[in-house]
Each structure stands twice: as C-alpha cells, then as structure tokens.
Amino acid sequence: MQFYLVNLGCPKNAVDAEGMAMRLAAAGHRPARSQRAADLLIVNTCGFIAAARSESLETLRRLARGKRARQLLIAAGCLAEREGAALAQRVPGIDAYIGTRHWSQIVPLVDELAQRHGHGPVTLAPGDGGDLVAPMARSAAGATAYIKIADGCDAPCAYCAIPKIKGPQRSKPRHEVLAEARALVAQGVREIILIAQDTTAYGRDLGDAEGLAGLLPAILAQAPELAWLRVLYAYPQHIDRRLIDILASDPRIAHYLDLPLQHAHPEVLRRMRRPHDPERIARLVEELRRAIPDIALRTSFIVGFPGETEAEFQALLDFVGAMRFDRVGVFTYSREKGTPAAEMPGQVAPTVRRARFERAMAYQQGISRQRNAEQVGRTLPVLIEGAQEGLSLGRSYRDAPEIDGLVLVDGVHEVGSFVPVHITRAMEYDLAGERALEPKGRI
Predict the structure, then answer these.
(1) What is the DSSP letter of 146?
(2) How far, CA to CA in Å, does 326 sit from each of 145, 300, 382?
(3) Which of the 8 DSSP states describes residue 6?
(4) H/E/C letters for each residue in 365-431?
(5) Do the Cβ atoms of 326 and 254 come closer than 8 Å?
(6) What Å distances lie between residue 42 and 2, 10, 17, 318, CA to CA?
(7) Closest Cα partner for 236 from 297, 194, 193?
(8) Nearest Cα to 301, choosing from 359, 231, 241?
(9) Where does 178-293 show beta strands of DSSP type E?
C-alpha cells in the first residue's frame, strides 16, 4: 500500500509518526506524495486540549470527505486513544483506530484492516501489545531531530488529561536512546532535542539513579560530532545541583532550558496540584543563571485556572517581571473532561481568560524585547534552516524549533550549516544580523 500520514500536535507526536512511517516502510508500504495517490490515510491526532481536538477532528473529516473508492482512513494518536470507537459517530468514514499507547503496532493493524475492509471499523484492543517508547530505527530529515526519552506521566496535575491518555511514565532504556543518537548523528544531524512529558523524571521507573544527569554525558560520549544537545520539558522539582553541573559542563549542551511552571501564586499552584513554592523556583532560576550566565530560560503559564482571582493573576505578572524569562508561552485554561479541575468551582469566564492571556503576552513581549536587545553586539553560532531572497533564517542556541524565535541573517547560506552571526538588531521575538568575519561563541 501507499500511505499518506498527517501528523498533528507536539514533538512527541512527531516522533511517533516517524516511528509509524518507518515501520510501514519496513513492511513494504510506501509513502504517497498526496492524499489522492494514497491507498491508506493516517491522521496522528492530538487530544490534549479543546483546540487540538478541534484541529484533529477537522483534519479527519476533511480526509474522510475526500476519500476515493477503496481508500482506508486510520485515526491514530491521542484523540484515538481518548475516544476510540466513539470517533465513528463524529467522523463517518474512519476505518480503524490506534491509540498513542499502541503506535508500534501499526503494521499488524494495517494487515488486519486490509483483510476485514468493509466489515466495520477495526480497533486495537487495550491488551494488544504496544509500547509508548518502542525502539525505532531513525531516519534523519534535516539537521535537527527529536528523541523521545520517555512518555506517559506520573504527575497528578489537576488540569491535565495526559495520564489518562498515555498512562504512567515509561522511560526508554538508555542503550536505546544512545543507539538513536548515534544513528541520527551518523546521518548528519547536528542538533538533538530530548523530549518527554517530564525529561527530568527520566529513568526513575527503570531504577536508573543517574537519570537525565547520566544520560546527557552518555549521549555526548556516544555521539562526539553532535553540535547541540537541547532539553525540553524539564520540570523544576526534579532539577538538582548535579544536573545543573552537567548542563554547565559541556559546551555542546545548549545553554537553554525549558521549565514548565504553569503559575506563580502558591494557592493557584495548590489547586493545580503542582509544586507550590514560587520562592524555590526563584532560587532555582538564580542558581541556573549563576552556573550558566548566558542560559536562555523558557517557561509556560496557564491563565484563567478555576478560582484564579485578579490578585492571583497579578502575582503571576509580578513573578514574570521579576524573573525576566527569555521565552514565555501563555495558555488559557482548557476545561478537560475527566480531570479534577473540570469539576472545580469558580470556573473563570472565557472572556476573562482571554483578556488575561492578552495582558500576560503583552507584558512578556516587552521583557522579550529587552532580553533580545541584550544580544545585540554578540556573535552567535546560528543553525541555518532556510534561505530566500538574499536572506537566511536560522536559530541560535536560545531558540528551540517552532516555539521560539528566529535569527535573520543577511545573505544566502547553506541549510544545515552553522554560521557565526554578529547580531545587529533585536525585535520582540527575533534577532537579525550579518555573518561575522571570524567565528566566535559556542556551537
């Protein structure tokens, strides 16, 4: 069969989609260039929040409406895990379902679907094998690649449906992570980004006492040609002095850390069932900046959580102003069925949630502009990702792909190369500069 795969959602979904495509190709199936040319349509859905579910449903409906005779449509991923066969009532035309816990079983599902086509939707039962962090051969698609080191989550956050969708945390054994890293770097990957629901909880379920602090130097030892090793989704409660020392110990570990905090008022954090000591977070930020003076810190916050008062929201803004994070993502609270927060009193009106989102983003925008202005005059290694009309686009160590800013570089430079760039201009989220005469800074 020829397959056409659409991926939606976070980088963890992207890794699963790559895994499904690799397994299908190994079984003799071939990727199609378009929906119409395919025999098999697959949508790797996201079901995390309402907006993501809407996008997933619309994509499934669009493909279902355009199905030609004998084409098959599979709903995969988080929304399929969350709703299963109930999707058939919402999207007529779905032929099979495979949840995020079973993506590694895509080939047996396709085989069964081909045999049973026309006899109703096929679904993979919860007991039918599968592995959130199944080993996979890797195929580089550019200079940057993600490695999913764990999936699932043990945290009790009141607003989050991920534990219901994916179950408890399961870490990928270290030797499998190292094998993926070696394979990717051998294919020319220059930047590896480690992802999980909580990267700093890596290895606890395996009894690995070293955890992420042991994994980082092991990857660098196994893949010495790697230029950047970046860490996302590092929950602050699991960051200790040993991990900070590791982050500071090797210039190949990007001086960048993503710390999902979600709020800064202790009472809101208690209701969220999150660590609720903002002063401890402030000390951690200070410790990180002391150990790694040029570190870029990113975080995310939720506004409009049930019961959030104007005073609690103002405390969040005050914290943002005091911490001066380089990057901040702000999200409006999404009321997710089956989560404790969905039943809490004091649900905040959508108009108030939106207004607080806009205020928080506007406030951070000024801080982001100031933090970017501090880069003017520096020379930063920039990973080139595209070029057009005499201008190249890339990222510095301060920017994770798709969520942070870009560096605009005068001239056309080779995609996938590192170029030393003298920063001459700062904008709210992006930087601009020109190629430096002499390489400076870190890669």
Answers:
(1) E
(2) 23, 11, 17
(3) E
(4) HHHHHHHHHCCCCCEEEEEEEEEECCEEEEECCCCCCCCCCCEEEECCCCCCCEEEEEEEEECCCCE
(5) no
(6) 11, 17, 9, 45
(7) 297
(8) 359
(9) 191-195, 228-231, 253-262
- Across the range 217-241, mean pLDDT stands at 96
Question: 257, 288 in Cβ contact below 8 A?
Answer: yes
pLDDT digits (tens, 9 = 90+) for 379-425: 999 999 999 889 999 999 999 999 999 999 999 999 999 999 999 99
pLDDT at 129: 53
Question: Which whole-number Å values give the CA distances from 319 to 298, 303, 315, 342, in the listed order?
Answer: 14, 13, 6, 26
**Angle, to 10 degrees, between the axis of helix 241-249 and the axis of helix 278-291?**
30
Instruction: Specify whether the CB–CB gap between 220 and 250 falls below 8 A.
Output: yes
What number of other Cβ atoms are within 10 A of residue 54's Cβ? 10
Strand, helix or coil at 435?
A: strand
Paired residues of 425 in beta bridges: 432
The residues near 228 (Cβ < 8 Å, ≥ 6 apart) are 190, 191, 192, 252, 253, 254, 383, 397, 443
Half-sphere exposure of 439 (CA within 13 A, CB side): 7
What gap in Å lies between CA 281 and CA 264, rounded to an integer? 9
**Helices (H), ranges, 117-173:** 162-166
SS (H, E, C) 26-49: HCCCEECCCCCCCCEEEEEECCCC
Question: Other CB atoms closer than 10 Å to residue 389's CB: what's the count?
Answer: 5
CA distance 344 to 151: 27
Helix (H, G, I), strand (E, B) or coil at 296: strand
Q: In what order do the strands lie in the sheet with 296-303?
A: 144-148, 191-195, 228-231, 253-262, 296-303, 327-332
Q: Evaluate if residue 363 carries a pLDDT over 80.
A: yes
Polymer length in residues for the chain: 443
Q: Which two tokens stand for residue 207?
A: 């009894």
Q: What is the spatial distance between Cα 189 and Cα 144, in angstroms, rounded to a whole number?
A: 6
Give the domains, in start order, of the chain with CATH numbers: 2-123 (3.40.50.12160), 144-373 (3.80.30.20), 379-435 (2.40.50.140)
